[in-house]
Amino acid sequence: MTKPIILTGDRPTGKLHLGHYVGSLKNRVLLQNEDKYQMFVFLADQQALTDHAKESEMIRDSIGNVALDYLSVGLDPSKSTIFIQSQIPELAELTMYYMNLVSLARLERNPTVKTEIAQKGFGESIPSGFLVYPISQAADITAFKANLVPVGNDQKPMIEQTREIVRSFNNTYKTDCLIEPEGLYPANEGAGRLPGLDGNAKMSKSLGNGIYLSDDADTVRKKVMSMYTDPNHIKVEDPGKIEGNMVFHYLDIFGRQEDQAEIQAMKEHYQKGGLGDVKTKRYLLEILDRELAPIRERRLEFAKDMGEVFNMLEKGSQSAQAVAAQTLSEVKSAMGINYF
Ligand code: TRP
Prior knowledge:
elongated, 2 domains, mainly alpha, Tryptophan--tRNA ligase, 14 helices, three-stranded parallel β-sheet, aminoacyl-trna synthetase, protein biosynthesis, Tyrosyl-Transfer RNA Synthetase, binds tryptophan, single chain, ATP binding, Rossmann fold, ligase
């Protein structure tokens, strides 16, 4: 019996932070270790180039960093195929054929792309590659005949677009060689979304409000000590607020079953007054350290031999390419452009 295929990936534009960890990495490792799926995880460097064309050095550095992040959280190249998008030319070729099945108006309607265009302030100079990236994402997904694509809610329009392309292609060329994928989304809007240290709804590189998987213990300590709590909780004896207090929010996310009694007691004490922020932060630090210390250690270990990390990526890319080449060949036959 063949296993359902999962494809997921990230744009390599920096290192991964706790938001990525809570929102997707943890889940990927769980899915990998369930052993029920065949998983492909990839670094979407070509997608990153669509809005960072002049920063190819940054993207190159990010490839090494994100690969280390992957390995250190427990993605395992002996179980999952980890690869780099740009090393699979078949993906660009598929994109080319799919482009003819998608109108410009359809691309311009994509809500996520619209938001990004506004955020990035492209003005009149939207790179055409950027507008087209949802089509290249469809190529990523279909090349591996992925059944399931675990992504955040902001990626729904990309899955929808991919499904449309699959239907259109299969219809146009009277084939069933492409598979319609399903998105695997977080259970609810808030789930898997980690706010920033400053209380902003989202942890992000541009806001500078994140803890990185690569941060050392001292950096994590400083960041936790700077976390947004309750601005009206001035003296220790003042009653404090739990809602919107990042320390308690993070405790809810990172606390395990066995921590629940302690967390509950702290919440009550804090609300009553008499519990200072330094104490709650020290406790959070312990909880975070339990999770992050092993990741940090593994990261340092893998980082000793970057040659080996890139070897792993090369091998992953080779086996991914074989899969994509098979799909491309089916696509070309369906289109009747297999001339020789
Ligand atoms: N668009 C995704 C992001 O910004 C990255 C990505 C590119 C992706 N191709 C994909 C995710 C295919 C899942 C499947 O995070």
